Amino acid sequence: MRSNRRHVLACLIAVLFALLACKGKPETRARVGETVTFEDSQWEVVGASFIGNQIQSFGTDKKTAGKFLKVDFKVTNTSKQDETILDHPKVFDDQSREFKVLDDQAMYVHQPEQTLTLESLPPSMMKRFTAIYELPKDAQGLSFEARALSAFGERRKVSLGI
Question: Dihedral, CA atoms, 117, 65, 142, 56, nearest 10 degrees?
Answer without folding.
Answer: 40
